C-alpha cells in the first residue's frame, strides 16, 4: 500500500510565513522567513512543499518574487497556489519550476480557461476544492462558488488530475481533519485527493493514512507543525508505519 504523502505548508502574507484561522484575513500568526521555513521542512525530510501566496489569493498584492525564490531554492517537489487565475499568472507559476499548481478561484469563475489549461498541462494542474459544508469558496474564501459535487463532476469530465480538498471550518484550528468529507469526495471521483485542514496530531495523520486505499494521496500539514504539536520527522515516521 502507498504511504500518505505529507506536504508541509508555507503560506506567505506580506513577505512572512503565516498561519490563519479558518483562512480569515486578519487572523495571521507570523512565523518569520518563508525561505527559512521551507528549508527547515526540506531538511526534516519532506518530499513536498505546499506553498501559498496568500496576498495573491486575497487580492491584496502578491509575493510572486519571494515565492519564486523559495521554489527555486527547493530540491523537493513544490505545489504552488494562490492567485493563479489567468495565462500570465499560470505561466509565472509554472516557470518557477514547481511540480504543480493548485487552482482555486479560477475553477469557480472561469471554468472554460481551467478546462483549457487542464488539457494543456495535465497533472501539473490540481484544483483546490475549498469548502464550507458542500459550498465551494473562492477569492480568499470570501465568495460562494457553487456546489462541491457538481463542480467535481465537471472537472472530472474535463480530465482534472487531482484535487486538494480543504474544509475551511477546520483550517488552522487543530480540530482534526474532516474524514467524512474526504470519504465522500473519494467516493465521487477516481482521481487522487490531497487532504487539507485541521490536522492536529499524529493520530489524525494515521487516520488519513487509513484513507489511502479510498484515494487520499496526501495531507497538507500547517498549524500543527508550526505549533510544534509534533515534528515533521515524527509525522513522516507515523505515516510510514501506518
Ligand atoms: O491556505 C489558506 O489558508 C488560504 C486562505 C484563504 C484563501 C486561500 C488559501 N489558500 C489556498 O489558495 C489557493 C486559492 O487561491 P486562488 O483562489 O486560486 O487565488 C487554494 O489552494 C487555497 O487552498
From TrEMBL:
**Entries under Gene3D superfamilies matching the protein:** Aldolase class I
Recorded catalytic activity of this chain's protein: 1-(5-phospho-beta-D-ribosyl)-5-[(5-phospho-beta-D-ribosylamino)methylideneamino]imidazole-4-carboxamide = 5-[(5-phospho-1-deoxy-D-ribulos-1-ylimino)methylamino]-1-(5-phospho-beta-D-ribosyl)imidazole-4-carboxamide; N-(5-phospho-beta-D-ribosyl)anthranilate = 1-(2-carboxyphenylamino)-1-deoxy-D-ribulose 5-phosphate
User: What does the record give under GO molecular function?
Assistant: 1-(5-phosphoribosyl)-5-[(5-phosphoribosylamino)methylideneamino]imidazole-4-carboxamide isomerase activity; phosphoribosylanthranilate isomerase activity
Documented EC number(s): 5.3.1.16, 5.3.1.24
| Compartments, record wording | Cytoplasm
Using the UniProt record, name the top-level EC class of this enzyme in a single word: isomerase
Where is this protein primarily located? cytoplasm
Its keywords, alphabetically, are: Amino-acid biosynthesis, Aromatic amino acid biosynthesis, Cytoplasm, Histidine biosynthesis, Isomerase, Tryptophan biosynthesis
Determine if Isomerase is one of this entry's keywords.
Answer: yes
Instruction: Give the residues annotated as active site.
Output: 11 (proton acceptor), 130 (proton donor)
Q: Which family does it belong to?
A: Belongs to the HisA/HisF family.
Checking PANTHER family in the record gives: 1-(5-PHOSPHORIBOSYL)-5-[(5-PHOSPHORIBOSYLAMINO)METHYLIDENEAMINO] IMIDAZOLE-4-CARBOXAMIDE ISOMERASE
Q: What does this protein do?
A: Involved in both the histidine and tryptophan biosynthetic pathways.
- Name used for this protein in its record: Phosphoribosyl isomerase A
Q: What gene does this protein come from? A: priA
